[in-house]
Amino acid sequence: MFWQGGLVAACHLDDDNDTNLFLLRFDSGSESLLYHLSELKGMASWKQKYEPLGLDAAGIEDAITAVGSFILKANELLQVIDSSMKNFKAFFRWLYVAMLRMTEDHVLPELNKMTQKDITFVAEFLTEHFNEAPDLYNRKGKYFNVEKVGQYLKDEDDDLVSPPNTEGNQWYDFLQNSSHLKESPLLFPYYPRKSLHFVKRRMENIIDQCLQKPADVIGKSMNQAICIPLYRDARSEDSTRRLFKFPFLWNNKTSNLHYLLFTILEDSLYKMCILRRHTDISQSVSNGLIAIKFGSFTYATTEKVRRSTYSCLDAQFYDDETVTVVLKDTVGREGRDRLLVQLPLSLVYNCEDSAEYQFTGTYSARLDEQWGAIPTRTMHFEKHWRLLESMKAQYVAGNGFRKVSCVLSSNLRHVRVFEMDIDDEWELDESSDEEEEASNKPVKIKEEVLSESETESQQAGAAALAPDIVIKVEKLDPELDS
């Protein structure tokens, strides 16, 4: 049953996957391009207001036409995929039945049933792949080419090996015979012998060309207000190593402040720096640069204090008032050495002692050269933290509007999603690490895990029954919320 259950299914599945992958971004992408270009065309027509930008209505119209040609070519590819799926399936089914009859094997009744459409599909397959084509004989590769989809996706300037058959297409013939319609700006030009990549590259070049002048005009109208040297890129002339691990920029529109999170790896693995500046450069802010060191974490129920040395792996703003941080306990045992922390900025920028944490250096020099001048505040947490068990957490992303934080493992295979608004006190509620392992109590947070197992040795017994990807939802324990 290889031909029916294997090869036919493989061909069908392969083309079906191509269709799904292609359609995934095609509709939204092409519609967005047309929408934005149409908006630009409207702006270009309003010369009294937008003429200084350098928008060219004719150039934008050419870009819209190029997008239309891309859509036509993409739809052509979809039709080729659909036709290939039907023809392949019908041909190999017919071929399998013919093989069974030649070997005098039993043919199932459902395989003998062929409709007129099936016969047409088989005939189309035979016509496309077994007809005489002398112009293809000298081409590189074999003459018989089952795969018609791949030629559309090759980034080459050569014509298609098997272009679509336009013979008998009344609309195509009508356009070719009408000089007025061929030159009409209302119809998108069609390139039947070119690949999708060729049309896409042409579209990109036309769009870049029509937007080049506005880009130059806008670029020249902008001036640098201030420059704070943070680090030199590793590709610079002096080959200075990259100093910062996760630069993350945040704009607080309410207070008109820019924030930047970073670490200076070679100088300190255990501190996270927060740089903030006012959007109005004429105004200054207190505590413009401060380093955060994570000291201790206290369990809520037993008040046991967890002290260690923590390095900051990643950090992002959860909202305007909170930073979500992933920490690594440098002396903790594996599987229990990662922490997820919510850092309130109200604790960082304490008005009572703000004068003690003023940056005494200068922003005109590189920060790694004046590391000693950066004030350091040690933070101690009694809540807003939890231990990330059995996970080598490395990256974090937070969304305060959706009340969700997402943690990604270092091998990019393990993801945990946390709902952050379940309880304000969402730290790990256990008396000690040893007691936690023994009791295996649930925690005060709803957690959804989508993962491929990172500890195959622990799940070897269930490997035969469990899939590669596991989805687990941990419900809240009512007793913990009471």
Automatic annotation (TrEMBL):
Keyword Cell division annotated: yes
Region (Disordered): 428-463
InterPro entries: APC4, APC4_C, APC4_long_dom
GO cellular component: anaphase-promoting complex; nuclear periphery
Bias-annotated ranges (Acidic residues): 428-437
Keywords recorded for this protein, A-Z: Cell cycle, Cell division, Mitosis, Ubl conjugation pathway
Domain of life where this protein originates: Eukaryota
Domain called Anaphase-promoting complex subunit 4 C-terminal half WD40: residue spans: 249-419
All residue ranges annotated as the Anaphase-promoting complex subunit 4 long domain in the record: 29-105
Pfam family, one: WD40_APC4_C-half
Any one GO biological process: protein K11-linked ubiquitination
Protein name: Anaphase-promoting complex subunit 4
Organism of provenance: Rhinolophus ferrumequinum
